[in-house]
């Protein structure tokens, strides 16, 4: 492919592009002199962390920058014509039938009040493909994107679709007018790994068949290397390195690329070093948590007034050994978060027992429960939602100490400083507020808050899922370090098997509320016993690259 | 949709009983209507006993409430102190109020949405800022002040229309009070549509719509406007319920012979049976209007239908 296009002009050629956003604090340059080109039929991935400008540059190619953003320099050549200063009207001619888009979040990118079919149909119409049997055309477009039962599905609304189905609908919209270039902005980052793979495979097949060039945006280098012929690494608004995917992965030149490769979860194959945990995991029978026949039934309202039972967690048993990490993995809806909520005693089990340190939690009195809460602390997924925006960092971390009546004002202040130091944040942070911190910093604060009461067990519910790879790696390292120092036990709830491999000693795999498989991480990764687990493992992006 | 409707209708039942009970209790159990009727003058025991029997005031509270409910459900609203049927009074006043309410609603809907949409599309522009300031002024000035000012300027000084409304209250007469009545809600409608438009303009699905190659006009009409107007329409629906309940102040200022004025006069002379009857009708109108809003909401937003 590369050879054959060598002498042609690129389909998309971005030269010295500079993009500026006007913000309340003055102009901010999001992209600074970036170069990027995509040949006919070629697939190029832009990799970088949030804020690197990777989405911005791709959106600029379609004239879809937010209203305060502007291309302030360079050229954006599509098919030889410069669009850097093009009007909305000029862009309209290339949107849809020349450049299609598959956006990042399938939940927010379909208009909730229009039927799926309508949203496909208007795309076809807008690009001169109207007329004839529209319903048939719509069904075809949806079917091509791998949506089963397309004709009926076209008459449904977005909220009746699962995330994966919505993304298929968006793919069908993006490709319905046979564009020459498809901009895919993290098209699967909001989806389960197995769904992610199906969708990416399908996207690959479709674009290969149609000869569509793809500009693929991702934060995961493994994913980029697996899916694209060429990788472009962006850092702070600049392209720091680009080249054929495999070369770049084997022989990175720029320090940032090296760091990305080092921290890409999908490319690492071992647990982070932690001798203490390894020993305990190997020898120990000392269980800090024992979960036995745990079951949770939710009553859900069906059509009308009827109620039916929904078995969210079905007879699940496993143990967490003191000082080690046990990961519970599964796709959304597998019941893994429900397990976490029950262990935190935020949700009452329908049946089964949870023993903490040998004590049955179901029989604890109010007072004993209060004491229990001190010993088990949570860290949640969304560091934006789990910190009170009105609380200073000091107040956030101090509050649990205050509630449990620990120390006086001065000793609490010292404790907060100490905790901040533990999570590698300067003591001055305590006068700041969550909105002044980045996602990774906030998650550090959440960890400091969880540590305040010196708990024995920390329940991490997707604690690193919302973070960029580099930040994710830092937070995982921090958690690992704290485990080694303080002998903490982690119950780690995640959908990401790549993360499991980095941090867990034991794994519990859940599916549809049931425990499918459990055992030592190394064993499960080496010889998965069930098809479900091996599917999950295969779905880790970049997995094949190691072989 | 059927289940949703049924559930909404069932919700009306406790609201209706709760509200009527409360009104009945507040008006009858906490004051003596007979004392009000006699105007504080002495009255013979026999006359008083007859009057009490006539209004069922000699019965225990629950029996009184029961009789009142029975009458209400058979559409018998009782009689005023002067012997008129409350049904007749309401039947005369309601059409006037309805006319006033519909005019006010039309004014706030048309101007509110148009101004709001243009302000939202050009958020931060001159038009937007002007509209915002003006709407703030309108919101902060009390209705009766606005009423008197309008009356004086348009009715007396400019003499465009009569400053007060006659007993027949035709459409032309009602323009001034309807404008005053609509102005306050108009300001809210402008602000609501403006924020909705501005918010939806930056929604992901709007960007995706542009990416499909749709024209700007179609993006705004199909993807921004419909989504933005859902909360506005429900606000307007709820507002219609409020307006139908009669605008006591506006009807008072312009001497509109509507339901608000009837209620106001009844309260002034302590005519409890009329007060309770009129308020009950208002409760009913309000509950029905709210039901209509809920159903409308479900019709406009498919997510509600299946919730």
UniProtKB/TrEMBL annotation, chain A:
Family (UniProt): Belongs to the ABC transporter superfamily.
Keyword ATP-binding: yes
Name by which UniProt lists this protein: ABC transporter ATP-binding protein
Organism: Zhihengliuella salsuginis
Pfam families cross-referenced by the UniProt entry: ABC_tran (PF00005), oligo_HPY (PF08352)
Positions of the ABC transporter domain: 14-261, 289-537
NCBIfam families assigned: PRK10419.1, PRK11308.1
GO molecular function annotations of the record: ATP binding
Family annotation (InterPro entries): AAA+_ATPase, ABC_transp_ATP-bind, ABC_transporter-like_ATP-bd, ABC_transporter-like_CS, Oligopep_ABC_C, P-loop_NTPase
Gene3D superfamilies assigned to the protein according to its UniProt record, in alphabetical order: P-loop containing nucleotide triphosphate hydrolases (3.40.50.300)
Key words of the record: ATP-binding, Nucleotide-binding, Transport
Automatic annotation (TrEMBL), chain B:
Localization (cell): Cell membrane
This protein's UniProt keywords: Cell membrane, Membrane, Transmembrane, Transmembrane helix, Transport
Superkingdom: Bacteria
InterPro entries: BPD_transp_1_N (IPR045621), MetI-like (IPR000515), MetI-like_sf (IPR035906)
Topological type in the membrane: Multi-pass membrane protein
Major localisation: membrane
Pfam family, one: BPD_transp_1_N
Transmembrane feature ranges: 100-119, 131-154, 174-192, 228-254, 274-300
Cell membrane keyword on record: yes
Domain ABC transmembrane type-1 span(s) in chain numbering: 94-297
CDD domains tied to this protein: TM_PBP2
Family: Belongs to the binding-protein-dependent transport system permease family.
Entry-linked PANTHER family: DIPEPTIDE TRANSPORT SYSTEM PERMEASE PROTEIN DPPB-RELATED, DIPEPTIDE-TRANSPORT INTEGRAL MEMBRANE PROTEIN ABC TRANSPORTER DPPB-RELATED
This protein's name: ABC transporter permease
């Amino acid at each position: 492919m590369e050879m054959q296009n060598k002498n042609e002009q690129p389909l998309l050629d971005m030269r010295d592009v500079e993009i500026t956003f006007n913000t309340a604090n003055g102009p901010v340059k999001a992209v600074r002199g970036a170069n990027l080109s995509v040949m006919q039929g070629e697939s190029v991935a832009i990799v970088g962390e949030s804020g690197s400008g990777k989405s911005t540059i791709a959106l600029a190619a379609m004239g879809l920058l937010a209203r305060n953003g502007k291309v302030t320099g360079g050229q954006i050549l599509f098919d030889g014509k410069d669009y850097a200063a093009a009007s909305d009207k000029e862009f309209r001619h290339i949107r849809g039938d020349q450049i299609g888009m598959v956006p990042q979040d399938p939940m927010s990118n379909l208009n909730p009040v229009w039927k799926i079919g309508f949203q496909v149909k208007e795309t076809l119409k807008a690009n001169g493909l109207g007329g004839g049997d529209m319903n048939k055309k719509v069904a075809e477009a949806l079917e091509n994107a791998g949506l089963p039962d397309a004709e009926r599905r076209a008459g449904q609304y977005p909220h009746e679709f699962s995330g994966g189905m919505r993304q298929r609908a968006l793919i069908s919209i993006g490709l319905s007018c046979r564009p020459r270039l498809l901009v895919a902005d993290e098209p699967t980052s909001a989806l389960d790994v197995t769904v992610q793979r199906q969708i990416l495979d399908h996207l690959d097949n479709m674009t290969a068949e149609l000869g569509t060039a793809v500009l693929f945006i991702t934060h995961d280098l493994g994913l980029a290397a697996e899916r694209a012929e060429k990788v472009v690494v962006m850092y702070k608004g600049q392209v720091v390195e680009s080249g054929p995917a495999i070369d770049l992965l084997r022989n990175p030149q720029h320090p940032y690329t090296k760091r990305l490769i080092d921290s890409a979860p999908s490319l690492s194959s071992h647990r982070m070093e932690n001798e203490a945990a390894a020993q305990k995991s190997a020898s120990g029978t000392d269980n800090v948590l024992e979960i036995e026949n745990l079951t949770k039934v939710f009553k859900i309202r069906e059509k009308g007034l009827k109620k039916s039972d929904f078995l969210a967690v079905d007879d699940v048993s496993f143990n967490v050994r003191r000082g080690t990490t046990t990961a519970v993995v599964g796709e959304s809806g597998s019941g893994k978060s429900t397990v976490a909520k029950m262990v935190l005693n935020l949700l009452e089990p329908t049946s089964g027992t949870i023993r903490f340190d040998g004590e049955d939690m179901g029989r604890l009195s109010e007072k004993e429960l209060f004491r229990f809460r001190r010993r088990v602390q949570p860290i949640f997924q969304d560091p934006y939602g789990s910190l009170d925006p009105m609380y200073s960092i000091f107040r956030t971390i101090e509050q649990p100490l205050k509630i449990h009546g620990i120390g006086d004002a001065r000793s609490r202040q010292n404790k907060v400083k100490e905790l901040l130091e533990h999570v590698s944040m300067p003591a001055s942070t305590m006068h700041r507020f969550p909105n002044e911190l980045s996602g990774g910093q906030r998650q550090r604060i959440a960890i400091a808050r969880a540590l305040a009461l010196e708990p024995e067990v920390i329940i991490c519910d997707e604690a690193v899922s919302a973070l960029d790879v580099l930040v994710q790696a830092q937070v995982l390292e921090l958690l690992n370090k704290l485990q080694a120092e303080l002998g903490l036990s982690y119950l780690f709830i995640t959908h990401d098997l790549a993360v499991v491999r980095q941090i867990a000693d034991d794994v519990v795999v859940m599916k549809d509320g049931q425990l499918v498989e459990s055992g030592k991480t190394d064993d499960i990764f080496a010889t998965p016993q069930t098809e479900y687990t091996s599917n999950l493992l295969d779905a880790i992006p970049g997995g094949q690259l190691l072989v | 949709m059927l289940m949703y409707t049924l559930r909404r209708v069932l919700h009306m039942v406790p609201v209706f009983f709760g509200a009527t009970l409360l009104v009945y209790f507040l008006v009858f159990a906490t004051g003596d209507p007979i004392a009000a009727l006699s105007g504080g003058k002495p009255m013979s025991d026999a006359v008083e006993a007859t009057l009490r029997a006539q209004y069922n005031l000699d019965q225990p509270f629950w029996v009184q409430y029961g009789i009142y409910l029975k009458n209400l459900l058979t559409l018998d609203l009782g009689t005023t102190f002067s012997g008129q049927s409350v049904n007749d009074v309401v039947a005369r006043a309601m059409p006037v109020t309805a006319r006033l309410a519909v005019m006010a609603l039309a004014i706030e809907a048309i101007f509110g949405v148009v101004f709001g949409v243009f302000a939202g599309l050009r958020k931060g522009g001159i038009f937007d800022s002007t509209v915002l300031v003006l709407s703030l002024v309108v919101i902060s000035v009390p209705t009766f002040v606005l009423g008197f000012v309008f009356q004086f300027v348009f009715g007396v000084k400019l003499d465009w229309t009569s400053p007060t409304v006659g007993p027949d209250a035709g459409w032309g007469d009602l323009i001034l009070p309807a404008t005053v009545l609509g102005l306050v809600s108009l300001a809210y409608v402008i602000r609501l549509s403006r924020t909705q438009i501005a918010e939806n303009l930056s929604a992901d699905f709007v960007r995706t719509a542009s990416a499909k190659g749709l024209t700007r006009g179609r993006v705004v009409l199909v993807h921004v406007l419909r989504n933005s107007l859902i909360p506005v329409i429900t606000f307007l629906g709820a507002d219609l319920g409020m307006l139908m309940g009669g605008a006591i102040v506006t009807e008072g200022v312009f001497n509109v012979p509507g339901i608000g004025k009837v209620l106001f006069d009844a309260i002034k002379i302590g005519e409890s049976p009329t007060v309770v009857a009129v308020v009950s009708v208002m409760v009913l109108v309000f509950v029905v209007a709210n039901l209509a809003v809920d159903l409308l909401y479900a019709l406009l937003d498919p997510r509600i239908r299946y919730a």
